[in-house]
Structures are given as structure tokens and as C-alpha cells.
Amino acid sequence: MQPLGYGSLSPARLDATFAALADPTRRAILARLASGEASVRELAEPFSMSQAAISKHLKVLERAGLISHGRDAQRRPRKLEAQPLAEANEWLERYRQFWEESYGRLDELLEEMKRTAKPRTSERRATSKRKGRRER
Amino acid sequence: MTTTKATGKALQITTPGDREIRITRSFDAPRQLVWDAYTRPDLLKRWLGAMPGWSWAVCEMDVREGGRYRWVWRGPEGAELGLGGEYREVVPHERLVTTEKYDQAWYPGEAVGTVEFTERDGRTTLVTTLRYESKAARDAVLQSPATSGMEMGYALLDTLLASIATA
Question: What angle do CA B156, B157, B162 make, to 5 degrees?
Fold first, then answer.
């Protein structure tokens, strides 16, 4: 089902991104990396988790392309890769925009319905309680 | 008078459970009208669907419990987007529960959509909850720009409504 296409967004990549973002620990790691690169040990510190557990999360983030290794072979600091997050955000923004525009049209339609419904209220709904309420 | 922005029309999208997507929005109209706009094909067709190059091909709705609906849009180069399902629960002006399946579904299983209409002080809040068969299906939907088939849509209706407004 792709009559509209995915544009520049790869579904597989978005899949990996959203899956990676679904976990609170991984989101916390990304938040930490947003303020600068950090080693596994540094990343593990704020969590009551082993470095091995943190490493697992890092692997998921890495596969999703959300983080990468720094150059320092000793520390292997992780750093944030902004692009996949930007893509995920772009998609969510489109989703939101779609609904906003759809509902925007519904607003317009409802305005028109309110105008045309008025003279016909009594004929359409003899017992309508709407009339009194709306005309206060 | 304050602007419409101040009346709480902001759209909210949440994922209340890992199989669900919920969209909440308020409208400045009594719920009978919102209900009509949702359940009458002639009205629904005016706000739902049809991006530039796309148009409604089928809009059939038998709005009663056990009744079915079928929506098809046609687009450029013979592209077609169709979906349909059943009305599971129809409580006029209050609640609509439908199943939803696309002809070329890109996610597994059938979704169940619940639309709740709540009126307060002449304003109606619509809460639409789409519940998928699995988290994987929900996530697939969140990732697809074709979500709900309704992405096609706005420009044509904008034009239509603009022409009505100036008529």
C-alpha cells in the first residue's frame, strides 16, 4: 500500500528508529548523548544496570543508526546521530499534519452545517434541545 | 471574542497502549452535527480523502450494527486505495465502533476503531482510538505516511469548502 510513497523515508529505517525509541532507557541514553559523546561506562553510571545491559541497548541504538562510535579506540565514545531522529520526527509531523488538516476541513464543514441547520431545526428535530442552548 | 485557537482545538496524538493510537480533537459544534459529518457519505466525502489527483470512487456506508462500509479512492496512474469493514457498535451521537482493513494492508490483521463523541457547552470532543492486532501492526501504521487512507486529502476539500464559503 504505497500509492503515496514514503518519500525520502525508508520504512525499514523508520521501523528500527521507532523500535529503538520505544524503550525508556534508550531514550535516556539518547538524551544524555544529546549533550555530548560518552563512553559505555559513563552512560551506565546513572542507571542501576550493568555495563553489559547498557551495551545491549547501545547495540539497538547503533543498529537503528541513532548513535555511532567516536574515533578514540580506547574509550569508544558513543555519539548521537541526528539524521534518523530527524526523519522519525518528520514522519510524526506529517501524521499530525494530516489529522490537523482533515479536522480543519471538518471544522469548515461543521460551520456550514450549523448555518444551514438553523432554519431547519424545527423541521428536522421537533424536540431539539439544541436551539435554546445555542442561542443564548 | 478570543480566537479559535484559544478554544482548545489543539490536536493530540497519543499511544495509550502499545497496540493503540489515539487522536483527540474538539469541534465547535454540537455532536449531532459532528455525528452526521462522520456517518453521512455525502458529508464524509467532503472532509475525508482526496489529495490532488485523488478522488472518491466508492463511498458506501450502511451505518447500523452489523452493517458494512466500503471506501475507495482513485489516484494518478490507476492507483487505487480501498478499505472497508463492519460497524460493530452504533450509538447515535455517542459512539461508533468499526473494524478497518485495507485492501492492500501493510500491517497484519484488522484494526478496530472507536470514535467517541462527547458534547460540552455546545462543543464536541472526538476521541478516536485505533486498536491494532499487535504492537507490530500499530508501529507499522505509525510509520506509514498512508495512515488511514485519509492522508490523501486536504487540498481538494479546501478548494471545495472555499468555493462553498464564497458562494
Answer: 105
ipTM value of the model?
0.70
B9, B37, B51 ranked by CB distance to A113: nearest: B37
Question: CA A44, CA A37: separation in Å to the nearest integer?
Answer: 13
- Interchain contact A27–B (C-beta under 8 A): no
Entry field: residues in chain A:
136
Cβ pairs A/B, distance under 8 A: 123
Does A96 contact chain B (CB < 8 Å)?
yes
User: For residue B98, which amino acid is it?
Assistant: T
Locus of grid cell 485523488: B54
B59-117 tens-digit pLDDT: 999 999 999 999 998 888 888 878 899 999 999 999 999 998 878 766 667 889 999 99
Min Cα distance B151 → chain A (Å) is: 5
Q: Which residues of chain A have a CB within 8 Å of the CB of B34?
A: 106, 110
